[in-house]
Structures are given as C-alpha cells and as structure tokens.
Design goal:
The chain is built from nine helices and five strands. With 189 residues, the protein is of the alpha/beta class. A five-stranded parallel beta sheet has the order 2-3-1-4-5, with helices on both faces. The structure holds adenosine-5'-diphosphate (ADP). Adenosine-5'-diphosphate binds next to α2 and α3.
Amino acid sequence: MNELLIFLGPPGAGKGTQAKKLCSDRSLTQLSTGDMLRSHVKRGTELGVEAKKIMDRGELVSDDIIVGMVRDELSNASDGGARFLFDGFPRTTAQAEALDNLLASMNTGLDAVLLLEVNEEEVIQRLLKRAELEGRSDDNEETIRNRMSVYKSQTAPLIEYYDNKGLLKRVDGQGTIDDVYARLSGHFA
Ligand code: ADP
C-alpha cells in the first residue's frame, strides 16, 4: 500500500526527530533532502562542494538539483508500494509542483502534509543549542536567521498550497519530543 507524507515546518521545528519515529512506526522511508545533501558534502562529490557553499549561507540549493535527487530516490521505489515521508522537501512552490508531477507519473499522490508549528524565537534557541552540541556548519546565528527568512518567503507559501488541496494537518510542535509525537500520532489514530 502506498503512503506518502510530507513534513513541513521551519528549520529547528523537530521535523527530523519526529520523522524518524513516524517512519519506524509506519514502515516509511524517510527522504530528507538535507541529509542527502550532507552526504554529498561528506563524500566530497561535485554537487556536495557546490551545495556546501549554498547551505552555509542558509540559501536554498537549486530546484533542479533537488528535484533530480528526489526523482532518483523515487525511481528506486518498489512496485508494491511507495511508502515515503518527505522531510525538508518540498521547500518551494516549484518543488511542490514537480513532486505533484512525479507522483502523478507513478499513478499516486500525497496522503497528508503535516505542519509542525513552533514559534520563531523557540526554533532559533533550539538551533543555537544544536550548534553547540553537533557543530553543523550552517547552525550559526547569522545563517540561522537567514534560514528563517528564507523559510518565511519561499517555503511558508506551501502551507496555503497544501491547505487548498485539503491535505494540511497542523501539529503543535512545542513541548517534549514525546508530547509532540503523541499529538502527531493522533492524526493517524
Ligand atoms: P533545517 O530544516 O534544519 O534547516 P535541512 O537539513 O532540512 O535543515 O537543510 C539544510 C540546508 O540544506 C538548507 O538550509 C538548504 O540549504 C539545503 N536544502 C535542504 N533541502 C532543500 C530543498 N528541498 N531545497 C533547497 N535546498 C535544500
């Protein structure tokens, strides 16, 4: 059985953490474009070298590159069932439209878009803390503020895009990891 979900929300909302739990409970494959890019950076591929400069500024990697990466991953999906959770993708309207087309060509479509809502000051505090703990090179204050502003201008319009399609489910992302997961799972009960 196909199941296709999207996690939407600002950087630092906890998408990755919640996605891991949901994927393990529902046997979905987590498709994180951020993780895919970081893997390119680590392997030192040509794409990785270019992407790192963009990521360290808090800007978005080009839609063509991102859509190409996602297309490759989806083409590996078995015929029996496409079961994916998109984390950090789509991030622009162009990416959302490209995803609609990719899924249509596979004769499938999205089941739900989960919006993890956390206020701006809270996510900035969380990202600054992650910077101390993990030392991700895009987790410094200047880049964090830029990622927030890119989110607001380029990604937040997707909230309305998916709401208009009747797919949007809002989840309060404040509180402990378990609190948030309980609210999230409520949408699948
Ligand atoms: P976060 O959600 O914490 O900002 P991600 O790991 O999702 O982090 O992404 C890190 C960076 O990777 C982004 O700031 C951006 O530069 C790049 N990136 C990830 N996904 C996309 C995407 N779908 N489109 C464009 N750029 C992306």
